[in-house]
Amino acid sequence: MELLIDSNEIIKNRDRNIEIDVAANRSQRVFSNLAFDVVNRGADYVIKSMPINNNIKNILLDVKKSFETKDFKQIIKTAVGSSISEGLELLKLPKNVITDITKITDITFKGGLREGICAAIDIVTNKYLKNNIFYNIIKDFINKTKDFIFNKSFSNKIESGINNILNRADKFKDKCKEWYKYYEKLDFEKMNNLAKALNRERNKVANDIECVKEINIIQNMMKLVNNKKDKLSNMQLQICNNL
Prior knowledge:
This protein has 243 residues and is mostly helical. Helix content is 81%, strand content 0%. Helix 1 crosses helix 3 and helix 3 (70-91) runs antiparallel to helix 5 (113-129). The longest helix has 48 residues, at 2-49.
């Protein structure tokens, strides 16, 4: 019996570790995408604010296209991953902290995210500086974009983006609660319509482990409810929660 309990505990710990890894990787991916978008929008703003004519701005827009490539996105992802590892080590924090996306900003900044992004910018723009007659203007654009990365407005926009992500998750959870109200009334039409809508929105809340778990339970319940045409038994509810 004692061995069985130990075995069950091992399985639970293994599953919990897998869950933490999945949630941490999901949060890291969402944060990387957010950082990528903020850098791109910041570079656009820099170009618009520079006192140069439209022809020169078009040249800078060509340079800026290198910020929109998959290669640049991958470099940003690598920079985020490295800064998370470095930040966790410097702050002496466990990996499970980053399952909460609100904690990632401070950790990555402490781990050198700004420097990593600036290095990424150097990598993708270096080819535009070689023997270019507009070297000074391009260099000025690059430097101003780096200034933005080290400016307070960069971290503010990151935080604003995270707040938007959290607001989406809260609204999603409210809709899940609404689905359970329809379930209690056995309003099949509203249950099915809302379940389909929630399923379409699942990618928008993929970073939130509670939202992912809730939509999976609802989808499982919906399949059984549609088949049974009645409320589920305690055993069936348990199955839906565990699948």
